[in-house]
């Protein structure tokens, strides 16, 4: 427990897992922001990586769900980048792989199932 918090008898502590989930979101957002902030007609290496990830997810979603499925693109791309960056951070020594916890996987799956059922 990094920051112990207890509310109404429930343990809502900020843990190692929560820290690395926040770090994952920050790294993914910073990477996408920094690589696409200076858009150019001839992209550099990092901008090409960002565009390839964007096109990969877009093409995969279009192939699987058709053009009607593109309304879910922001959700699917965010999910893809979160899982990708979380697993890449886990490759470094002393870093924590948040996707190794079953509750994180369950939470992501619940978001997907909830989205599919609602729409």
Q: Encode the helix/strand succession as letters.
A: EEHHHH
The main sheet orders its strands as 1-2
Oligomer: single chain
Number of strands: 2
Radius of gyration: 17 Å
Distance between the termini: 37 Å
Low-confidence stretches: none
Give the proportion of residues in helices.
55-70%
Please tell me what the overall shape is: globular
Note the beta-strand portion.
under 5%
Largest sheet: 2 strands, antiparallel
Give me the secondary-structure category.
Answer: mainly alpha
Q: How many independent structural domains?
A: 1
* Average pLDDT figure: 91
DSSP summary: helix tally = 4
Describe this structure as you would to a colleague.
Helices cover 64% and strands 3% of the residues. The chain contains 4 helices and 2 strands; from the N terminus they run E-E-H-H-H-H. It has 119 residues and is mainly alpha-helical. A hairpin with a 2-residue loop joins strand 1 and strand 2 (10-11).
